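Exam revision sheet. Question 4 asks you to relate a sequence to its structure. Input first:
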Amino acid sequence: MAGIPTHNDHNEYHQALGGFIEMYAAAERMTYILLVTMAQLDAPIARGIWTSLRVREGVAIIRRLHETRNIPLSENLDEALGHLITINGIRDGLLHYGAPPDNKGRRAVSTEMYARSEESLIEFRVSVPMLNALTHDLDIIINRMLAGTARPKDKASQPWYDRAELRARDPFLYTQPSPAPKGRKTPSSAQSRTPRQKSSERTALRKKAAAEELKKRAKK
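Answer key, structure tokens:
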């Protein structure tokens, strides 16, 4: 029957998902290496600190180290760290909530079952092209991080750094989640706004509606 996901569809999705998760783990390792290198930490101390950290906290420390030393992040590295945080959120959604397919094979992450309020709701579409784009971007992030570390003097490492500097110039492919399937709330810029921003917008809409109502009554 047309539209029903096939075994090959599932295989293709899970291969893309596996590639994404593996590349994310590599980016996590590179975040650790960059943090340790920048902070000039000994291995035992670095291991002790990293056990209580995740990518989000590691990125925050890297930024603070640059601020403390009054050394601006390069544009490439700054963009890479910001993009890594975005991908971190997608990774968390996929691993914690999954993206089960509907009867047409469309997949989406949704916290509708768990969300305590509309403000805490997370929903976004997931597809093979999206996962492949994220995997591509993680590779660029890794190489931008590597290019941001001091180049070692040994000859064996030079090809790695040469590749990293070239790869670091490539643009990212992933931009924003695609529309959700029918029947789900469509993710948009509104879902990336804070609860306070959303509350303010709803208040403004209520005030506008009240003002329009008063005008109607005044005309009667």
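Marking note for examiners. The chain has seven helices and two strands.
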